[in-house]
Design a protein that fits this description.
about 350 residues, alpha/beta, Aspartate Aminotransferase, domain 2, Aspartate Aminotransferase, domain 1, 4-stranded antiparallel β-sheet, 13 helices, binds pyridoxal-5'-phosphate
Length: about 350
């Protein structure tokens, strides 16, 4: 059976060019700052995001944690969107390890508006933790891959700065956002004091994320990366794939977005499933299961048809397009989804 894997863009495999670059990579001990390929990736990423310097880390989760550790002190308050990855999916690390208290703010489709930041930041008072940092996510994963453009990002970033907060952007899929809104990624993070993105998702590299910011921020972040065990030695072997990813994989994300749209439109005609098409702007499709089967049960049935998806709630299934999903795969997946939907609306 052909497997169509729509669980995540993290399942993407490295390209031949990446594998060759990995085999040839010049390497050194990166904990000693001597890996030329890691330096090249960090420099290229900094240039593309308009930041001074970069730091290569093993994962997006670690990039967010190291950013929070670098921006804050224990007991500080961190404003974060209530469904943000940093809050929802990172094992409580910003509390458990960084020792901060998150202040979850329910966004509008993942966007925290400037007025919400104003409302959340309390005046200094001996009873309150010190509000120190605002974390944003672009694209917003749980909201359905929603991209935020320069105006939205600037408005909330500026407000945070006015209120004395630093700004960190979880840009795991920042290049999806940039491609969707049609601007260079740097324009989305002008007011970000730090931003991280992953080379391991739609960009198809096997491992890693890059955290970016001012030179002194990155210098301090390097110590926290070491503290949490993220100092890597001959990491150029994996950084080499990241360089190829940045050079060759960004523009093609538009294909993933077109395929997500095709998938979403097909599903929107498949009762008892529904999709809010206005939300489908990048490579993520959130499907509502309005039926007597729960999302996990529907996911299990689909798996028997060779279509892998991820339930993200009792009645929500997430489907993600990526480099290994063609328009033909989308059509095959749609047939399987229709068969499954029809089977379970019929009486047993
Ligand atoms: C928005 C967002 N941030 C951070 C991460 C964490 O990345 P990693 O899986 O590399 O730790 C993910 C992973 O899916 C994500 O979607």
């Amino acid at each position: 059976m052909t497997i169509i894997d729509l669980r995540s863009d993290t399942v993407t495999q490295p390209t031949e060019e990446m594998r060759e670059a990995m085999a040839r990579a010049r390497v050194g001990d990166d904990v000693l700052g001597e890996d030329p390929t890691v330096h090249e990736l960090e420099g290229l990423a900094a240039e593309m995001l308009g930041k001074e310097r970069g730091l290569f880390v093993p994962s997006g989760t670690m990039a967010n944690l190291v950013a929070v550790m670098t921006h804050t002190q224990k007991g500080d308050e961190v404003l974060v969107e209530a469904e943000a990855h940093t809050y929802y999916y990172e094992v409580g690390s910003i509390s458990a390890v960084a020792g901060v208290i998150p202040r979850p703010i329910p966004g509008r489709l993942g966007y925290i508006a400037p007025d919400q930041v104003r409302e959340a930041v309390r005046p200094p008072n001996v009873h309150f933790p010190i509000p120190r940092l605002l974390c944003l996510e672009n694209t917003h994963n749980r909201a359905g891959g929603i991209p935020f453009g320069p105006q939205e990002m600037d408005a909330v970033g500026l407000t945070a700065h006015e209120l004395g907060l630093a700004v960190h952007v979880d840009g795991a899929r920042i290049f999806n956002a940039a491609v969707a809104v049609g601007v260079p990624a740097g324009q989305l993070v002008r007011y970000a004091d730090s931003v991280m993105f992953c080379v391991s998702k739609g960009l198809s590299a096997p491992v890693g994320s890059v955290l970016l910011g001012k030179a002194d921020f990155i210098e301090r972040a390097r110590r926290f990366r070491k503290m949490v065990g993220g100092g890597m030695r001959q990491a150029g072997v994996i950084a080499a794939a990241g360089i190829v990813a940045l050079r060759t994989m960004v523009d093609r994300l538009a294909t993933d977005h077109a395929n997500a749209r095709r998938l979403a439109e097909g599903i929107s005609r498949t009762a008892p499933l529904s999709v809010d098409l206005s939300r489908v702007r990048t490579n993520i499709v959130l499907v509502a299961v309005n039926a007597r089967l729960t999302a996990p049960e529907f996911t299990d049935r689909l798996k028997q048809e060779g279509v892998l998806t991820l339930p993200t709630g009792p009645s929500t299934i997430r489907m993600v397009t990526h480099r290994h999903i063609t328009a033909h795969d989308v059509d095959m997946a749609l047939e399987a989804i229709r068969r499954t939907a029809t089977a379970f609306v019929q009486p047993r």
